[in-house]
Amino acid sequence: MDKVITCFTKRPDASVRLICFPWAGGGSIHYARWAKTLNNSIEVYSVRLPGREGRAKEPFFQNMQEIIDEVIGVLLPQLKEKPFALFGHRCSRPSTPFLSCPVSCFDGKEDVPHDLQANMATLSSKPGLRYSVSDWATNNKQISDTAEYKRSISHDIRQEGRALRNETTNKTHWDEYDSSRRLSDRINDVTHWKENLNACAQQVDAEMDALTLSKEETERALAATVLPLEVTAECLNLREGRHGKELISDPVEAELKKEVEVIDGAQRVLQQCIDQAFEQLCRLQEARQQLTIDIQDKIEALDVDMSCLSLTIRSPEISLKPNPTRVPPGCRMSWRPKKWLWSLLSTQEEIAELEKDICGLEEDMQAKMAPLKLVHTRLENRIKRPGMDLCRDEVQFGLVDEAKQLEASILALKQKLAQAQHSLQSLKQHEAQMIEDLSRKQDALSLEQHSSQTRQRLTLRVQTEGLPSAVVPLTNSSGRHKLDLA
């Protein structure tokens, strides 16, 4: 009986027996706690079928008739002793219709007797589905593998996020430093050219003063020729009053006419010099006005750039602006003063920085040789392990990975060092070309300056040349106003 029908708690004085049939795939153990839950008037029995629990090695029944035959053969003697009730699970009809004896049959979907209803109210009608140990292990492994995979993804994302944070932080700091450096260079350039423009404006003022003085002297010289011309002309008119044989062309008349021609020619030359001086003064005034405007623009530009240079990420006046990268109307491409010299200095600075980086690469590559030697030594020494201890354990795998990593790092450093050395050689060659070209430009500039000084002699010659005739004297027509430096 114990093989097919199990009673977990014997109650000889019980007035009724409860025979429990497990659901498909279930076992009798699920009803063990019912005996403790129900009162002493109920004795709980549970049916144990082949292939389950203690009968796990027995083959499963192939049809329902085999189950009926076995269960009835064991149950009938027990059912005749005391009143009993059957409890089972079904889909549409009771699971115990095969019993031919007059019994009370009920299941989870039918009304239970009043004496059992109160005690069974606390019991679940059907325990949860049970899994095998292999399913349990497979589920645990799947959960563990999934967790490991998700942790790996999370780790990669965290590492990429940290690398991106470091990269973007470094790039932000570098861009901020580079922009500040460019602002500082621009301020120095604008300051330099503002000083040059101030000096040029002073030279223009001095030139205008000298030209105005020369023009006034020329005008006085022109005015001084008026009286001699009038006297000579009057003398000729008086000599025209002679009569008869006295009206002759004598040397005196010839000299008087020659004097008139000389004075007239001198007046024309002086008048031409005055006109040229006036035109030059107008051009100088226009240039002086442009200088004043440019100097004032550079002062304002310096104020703006110095204000920008003083700003930091903690400044209270910084804010986001709409479309700050737009190109304002009238904006022109900038021309860097002393572009070649600046480019040469920048190239030399880059060469110095690259030489420092090359030294750093060589030091890092040399510093990794000691760890590589250590790993090689450990690997070589572990080959000497005897017997079964000579195995590829976690230490061996770790040392091999470390050796490969170090060799890859050294190879990457060597490649980067070769690239840096090649770039350094290229920069030095270009530096030599720039120095040679800059030398040629300096020679050409010196020749141009010498040529300009040579042509100044033409102006001096025009100012000191010839005498000539009568013109209307001119007053000072320069109209020059003194311009103050901004």
UniProtKB/TrEMBL annotation:
Residues 403-430 form a coiled coil. Residues 17-89 form the Thioesterase domain. GO terms for cellular component: axoneme; microtubule cytoskeleton; nucleus. It is found in: Cytoplasm, Cytoskeleton, Cilium axoneme. Pfam families: Tektin, Thioesterase. InterPro entries: AB_hydrolase_fold (IPR029058), Tektin-like (IPR048256), Tektins (IPR000435), Thioesterase (IPR001031). GO terms for biological process: cilium assembly; cilium movement involved in cell motility; monocarboxylic acid metabolic process. Keywords: Cell projection, Cilium, Coiled coil, Cytoplasm, Flagellum. Belongs to the tektin family. This is Tektin. It comes from Labeo rohita (Indian major carp).
